[in-house]
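Minutes, structural biology subgroup

Action item carried over from last meeting: produce the C-alpha coordinate record for Transcriptional regulator (Brevibacillus formosus). EB confirmed the sequence was re-checked against the source entry. Recorded below for completeness.
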Amino acid sequence: MVSPFETDLKWETLLEYGTRQFVKGKTAIYKQKTMGEGFYYLHKGLVKIVTSTFKGKDRLVNIVVPGQIMGLQTMDQQPHFTTAIAVKNAVVYHFSCLQFLEMLKARPELLSLFTQTINQKMRILLTAINMKALTSEEQIARLLLNICEDFKNHEVPLTQQELAECAGLTRITVYKILKAWKEQGIIEIRNRSFIVKRPDMLKHSQLTAQTARTV
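Output recorded by EB:
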Protein backbone atom coordinates (compact mmCIF):
# COMPACT_ATOMS: atom_id res chain seq x y z
CA MET A 1 0.00 0.00 0.00
CA VAL A 2 1.25 3.49 -0.83
CA SER A 3 1.45 5.76 2.18
CA PRO A 4 -0.30 9.13 2.50
CA PHE A 5 3.12 10.78 2.35
CA GLU A 6 3.62 9.38 -1.13
CA THR A 7 0.16 9.90 -2.59
CA ASP A 8 -0.87 13.30 -1.24
CA LEU A 9 2.42 15.02 -1.92
CA LYS A 10 3.00 16.79 -5.25
CA TRP A 11 6.54 15.54 -5.67
CA GLU A 12 7.14 17.39 -8.91
CA THR A 13 7.12 20.63 -6.91
CA LEU A 14 9.76 19.30 -4.50
CA LEU A 15 12.24 17.55 -6.78
CA GLU A 16 14.29 20.75 -6.99
CA TYR A 17 15.37 20.13 -3.40
CA GLY A 18 16.85 16.72 -4.28
CA THR A 19 19.77 15.45 -6.36
CA ARG A 20 18.86 13.50 -9.50
CA GLN A 21 20.63 10.19 -10.07
CA PHE A 22 20.44 7.63 -12.90
CA VAL A 23 20.86 4.02 -11.78
CA LYS A 24 21.41 1.12 -14.20
CA GLY A 25 19.38 -2.05 -13.82
CA LYS A 26 20.78 -4.63 -11.33
CA THR A 27 22.79 -1.89 -9.61
CA ALA A 28 22.56 -1.14 -5.90
CA ILE A 29 21.29 2.32 -4.94
CA TYR A 30 22.37 1.80 -1.35
CA LYS A 31 23.64 -1.24 0.54
CA GLN A 32 22.88 -2.88 3.84
CA LYS A 33 25.18 -1.90 6.76
CA THR A 34 26.50 1.17 4.95
CA MET A 35 25.94 4.64 6.33
CA GLY A 36 23.62 6.91 4.41
CA GLU A 37 22.37 10.43 4.87
CA GLY A 38 18.82 11.19 3.85
CA PHE A 39 16.35 9.22 1.73
CA TYR A 40 15.50 8.49 -1.91
CA TYR A 41 12.46 9.12 -4.09
CA LEU A 42 11.89 6.81 -7.09
CA HIS A 43 10.94 8.87 -10.13
CA LYS A 44 11.19 6.19 -12.84
CA GLY A 45 11.91 2.46 -12.92
CA LEU A 46 11.42 -0.31 -10.38
CA VAL A 47 13.44 -1.13 -7.26
CA LYS A 48 13.49 -4.16 -4.99
CA ILE A 49 14.40 -3.86 -1.33
CA VAL A 50 16.19 -6.90 0.13
CA THR A 51 17.89 -7.79 3.37
CA SER A 52 20.63 -10.38 3.86
CA THR A 53 20.08 -13.28 6.24
CA PHE A 54 22.73 -14.77 8.53
CA LYS A 55 23.30 -17.40 5.84
CA GLY A 56 24.09 -14.70 3.29
CA LYS A 57 20.90 -15.10 1.28
CA ASP A 58 18.83 -12.12 0.16
CA ARG A 59 15.25 -11.91 1.41
CA LEU A 60 12.78 -9.71 -0.45
CA VAL A 61 11.33 -6.98 1.78
CA ASN A 62 9.47 -4.71 -0.63
CA ILE A 63 9.05 -3.56 -4.21
CA VAL A 64 9.28 0.20 -4.73
CA VAL A 65 7.37 1.73 -7.65
CA PRO A 66 7.56 5.29 -9.03
CA GLY A 67 6.18 7.82 -6.59
CA GLN A 68 7.47 6.05 -3.47
CA ILE A 69 10.39 6.75 -1.13
CA MET A 70 13.02 4.44 0.37
CA GLY A 71 16.07 4.45 2.62
CA LEU A 72 14.35 6.31 5.45
CA GLN A 73 16.31 4.57 8.21
CA THR A 74 19.38 6.74 7.66
CA MET A 75 17.48 9.90 8.53
CA ASP A 76 18.44 9.22 12.15
CA GLN A 77 22.08 8.60 11.21
CA GLN A 78 21.77 4.80 11.40
CA PRO A 79 23.22 2.29 8.88
CA HIS A 80 20.92 0.91 6.20
CA PHE A 81 19.34 -2.39 7.30
CA THR A 82 18.32 -3.19 3.72
CA THR A 83 19.77 -3.01 0.20
CA ALA A 84 17.96 -1.25 -2.64
CA ILE A 85 18.58 -2.71 -6.11
CA ALA A 86 17.25 -1.29 -9.36
CA VAL A 87 15.38 -4.10 -11.14
CA LYS A 88 15.49 -2.04 -14.34
CA ASN A 89 17.05 1.31 -15.24
CA ALA A 90 15.84 3.86 -12.72
CA VAL A 91 15.86 7.58 -11.99
CA VAL A 92 15.97 8.48 -8.31
CA TYR A 93 16.24 11.71 -6.35
CA HIS A 94 18.31 11.78 -3.18
CA PHE A 95 17.24 14.13 -0.40
CA SER A 96 19.81 14.79 2.31
CA CYS A 97 18.77 15.58 5.88
CA LEU A 98 19.66 19.21 5.22
CA GLN A 99 17.55 19.28 2.06
CA PHE A 100 14.67 17.73 4.00
CA LEU A 101 14.88 20.53 6.58
CA GLU A 102 14.63 23.04 3.74
CA MET A 103 11.56 21.21 2.46
CA LEU A 104 10.01 21.35 5.93
CA LYS A 105 10.34 25.12 5.97
CA ALA A 106 8.35 25.32 2.76
CA ARG A 107 5.92 22.51 3.66
CA PRO A 108 5.60 22.08 7.48
CA GLU A 109 2.90 19.42 7.00
CA LEU A 110 5.61 17.06 5.74
CA LEU A 111 6.63 16.14 9.29
CA SER A 112 3.44 14.28 10.21
CA LEU A 113 3.20 12.70 6.77
CA PHE A 114 6.82 11.58 6.99
CA THR A 115 6.07 9.87 10.31
CA GLN A 116 3.13 8.04 8.73
CA THR A 117 5.41 6.80 5.97
CA ILE A 118 7.91 5.37 8.47
CA ASN A 119 5.08 3.50 10.21
CA GLN A 120 3.94 2.15 6.84
CA LYS A 121 7.45 0.90 6.05
CA MET A 122 7.51 -0.97 9.37
CA ARG A 123 4.25 -2.71 8.47
CA ILE A 124 5.74 -3.68 5.10
CA LEU A 125 8.77 -5.15 6.90
CA LEU A 126 6.55 -7.28 9.13
CA THR A 127 4.64 -8.52 6.09
CA ALA A 128 7.91 -9.44 4.38
CA ILE A 129 9.00 -11.49 7.39
CA ASN A 130 5.81 -13.52 7.08
CA MET A 131 6.29 -13.97 3.31
CA LYS A 132 8.79 -16.79 3.77
CA ALA A 133 6.11 -18.86 5.44
CA LEU A 134 4.22 -18.87 2.13
CA THR A 135 4.62 -21.22 -0.82
CA SER A 136 6.28 -20.03 -4.03
CA GLU A 137 2.83 -19.61 -5.63
CA GLU A 138 1.57 -17.54 -2.72
CA GLN A 139 4.69 -15.37 -2.71
CA ILE A 140 4.32 -14.53 -6.41
CA ALA A 141 0.58 -13.90 -6.00
CA ARG A 142 1.20 -11.53 -3.07
CA LEU A 143 3.96 -9.77 -5.01
CA LEU A 144 1.78 -9.25 -8.11
CA LEU A 145 -1.16 -8.00 -6.04
CA ASN A 146 1.03 -5.55 -4.13
CA ILE A 147 2.49 -4.13 -7.34
CA CYS A 148 -0.99 -3.83 -8.90
CA GLU A 149 -2.17 -1.95 -5.84
CA ASP A 150 0.78 0.42 -5.97
CA PHE A 151 0.42 1.10 -9.70
CA LYS A 152 -3.39 1.39 -9.35
CA ASN A 153 -3.97 -0.94 -12.31
CA HIS A 154 -3.68 -4.64 -13.14
CA GLU A 155 -0.69 -4.42 -15.47
CA VAL A 156 2.62 -5.43 -13.90
CA PRO A 157 5.58 -3.98 -15.87
CA LEU A 158 7.96 -6.88 -15.25
CA THR A 159 9.49 -9.63 -17.36
CA GLN A 160 9.53 -13.20 -16.04
CA GLN A 161 13.23 -12.81 -15.24
CA GLU A 162 12.64 -9.58 -13.32
CA LEU A 163 9.75 -11.17 -11.42
CA ALA A 164 12.00 -14.11 -10.52
CA GLU A 165 14.70 -11.72 -9.30
CA CYS A 166 12.19 -9.75 -7.24
CA ALA A 167 10.76 -12.88 -5.63
CA GLY A 168 14.12 -14.57 -5.13
CA LEU A 169 12.92 -17.66 -7.03
CA THR A 170 14.36 -19.48 -10.03
CA ARG A 171 13.14 -18.46 -13.47
CA ILE A 172 11.88 -21.98 -14.20
CA THR A 173 9.78 -21.96 -11.01
CA VAL A 174 8.22 -18.63 -11.97
CA TYR A 175 7.70 -19.81 -15.57
CA LYS A 176 5.79 -22.93 -14.46
CA ILE A 177 3.57 -20.96 -12.07
CA LEU A 178 2.77 -18.24 -14.62
CA LYS A 179 2.13 -20.84 -17.32
CA ALA A 180 -0.41 -22.55 -15.06
CA TRP A 181 -2.07 -19.23 -14.21
CA LYS A 182 -2.25 -18.31 -17.88
CA GLU A 183 -3.99 -21.60 -18.69
CA GLN A 184 -6.46 -20.92 -15.87
CA GLY A 185 -7.18 -17.42 -17.24
CA ILE A 186 -5.79 -15.72 -14.14
CA ILE A 187 -3.14 -13.71 -16.00
CA GLU A 188 -2.23 -12.70 -19.53
CA ILE A 189 1.45 -12.68 -20.47
CA ARG A 190 2.68 -9.94 -22.78
CA ASN A 191 6.15 -9.11 -24.08
CA ARG A 192 7.49 -7.32 -21.01
CA SER A 193 4.54 -7.28 -18.64
CA PHE A 194 1.71 -9.28 -17.10
CA ILE A 195 -1.97 -8.45 -17.02
CA VAL A 196 -3.73 -9.72 -13.90
CA LYS A 197 -7.17 -10.62 -15.27
CA ARG A 198 -8.49 -12.40 -12.17
CA PRO A 199 -7.03 -10.76 -9.04
CA ASP A 200 -9.73 -12.53 -7.04
CA MET A 201 -8.15 -15.86 -7.98
CA LEU A 202 -4.76 -14.74 -6.70
CA LYS A 203 -6.42 -14.17 -3.34
CA HIS A 204 -8.27 -17.47 -3.45
CA SER A 205 -7.51 -19.95 -0.67
CA GLN A 206 -7.31 -22.80 -3.18
CA LEU A 207 -4.76 -21.05 -5.42
CA THR A 208 -1.78 -23.11 -4.29
CA ALA A 209 -3.56 -26.43 -4.65
CA GLN A 210 -4.87 -25.56 -8.12
CA THR A 211 -1.44 -24.43 -9.32
CA ALA A 212 0.32 -27.42 -7.80
CA ARG A 213 -1.91 -29.79 -9.77
CA THR A 214 -1.07 -27.97 -12.99
CA VAL A 215 2.65 -27.56 -12.32
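Discussion: Strands lie at 19-23, 28-30, 39-52, 58-64, 69-70, 83-95, 155-156, 187-189, 194-196.
Next step: EB to file the record with the rest of the batch.
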